[in-house]
């Protein structure tokens, strides 16, 4: 299991959290870039990718919640991110999706919660995402106060590499602790809340 820390949740705590956890976990940073159009909220600027990479020297994955023709793609694709997630919903056809993915080997698909796991696996089987590596959103992006959509236990035996984004808590960590195909986005439920130091202590003693 890989643990990727949500920068938008961590903010100024990102440096200390990476330094504390990297000796115990396979740690990276998860950066949300939102355009206010594909999703209703705004994320951070793409420039932060290279800044954090230089400062902390850990893998960075970027979750792009923006339209396919957004000017920010140029900056994202020229960055030092290891993995870049693009939403399947922004494409008008599977051909369009495949053409977009083929422009950079780091690109992977992300899916909003309306897709069933069976639908996602079917898309992957049709070679749209040739790496069989995708991001699964447990909540709709940019909207607060939602119920988690997926039963994460259904992902235990998946042969795909899956990044789980949203609703990740200590129970989720226990579920996937020994699963090398799973990357968990650690946000406000797991670490970055009023019980930050207690949460860090729980992770160090797991």
Polypeptide structure, described:
The chain is α/β, with parallel strands linked by helices and 206 residues long. It has a single domain, classed as Aldolase class I (TIM Barrel). Helix content is 30%, strand content 22%. It contains 8 helices and 8 strands, in the order βααβαβαβαβαββαβα. An 8-stranded parallel barrel has the order 1-2-3-4-5-6-7-8. The radius of gyration is 16 Å and the shape is globular. The two termini are 13 Å apart. The model has no long low-confidence stretch (mean pLDDT 89).
Short description, anyone?
The chain is α/β, with parallel strands linked by helices. The protein contains eight helices and eight strands; from the N terminus they run βααβαβαβαβαββαβα. The protein has a single domain (2-204), classed as TIM Barrel (Alpha-Beta Barrel).
């Amino acid at each position: 299991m890989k643990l990727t820390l949500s920068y938008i949740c961590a903010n100024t705590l990102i440096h200390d959290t990476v330094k504390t956890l990297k000796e115990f976990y396979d740690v990276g940073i998860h950066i949300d870039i939102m355009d206010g159009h594909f999703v209703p909220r705004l994320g951070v600027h793409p420039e932060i990718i290279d800044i954090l990479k230089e400062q902390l020297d850990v893998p960075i994955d970027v979750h792009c919640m923006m339209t396919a023709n957004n000017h920010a793609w140029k900056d994202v694709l020229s960055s030092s991110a290891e993995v870049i997630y693009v939403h399947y919903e922004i494409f008008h056809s599977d051909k369009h999706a495949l053409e977009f993915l083929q422009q950079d080997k780091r690109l992977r698909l992300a899916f909003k919660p309306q897709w069933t796991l069976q639908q996602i696996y079917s898309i992957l089987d049709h070679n749209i995402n040739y790496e069989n590596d995708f991001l699964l959103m447990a909540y709709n992006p940019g909207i607060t106060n939602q119920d988690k959509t997926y039963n994460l236990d259904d992902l235990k035996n998946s042969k795909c590499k899956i990044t789980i984004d949203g609703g990740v808590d200590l129970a989720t960590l226990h579920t996937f602790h020994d699963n090398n195909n799973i990357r968990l986005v650690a946000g406000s439920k797991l670490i970055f809340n009023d019980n930050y130091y207690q949460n860090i202590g729980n992770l160090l003693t797991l």
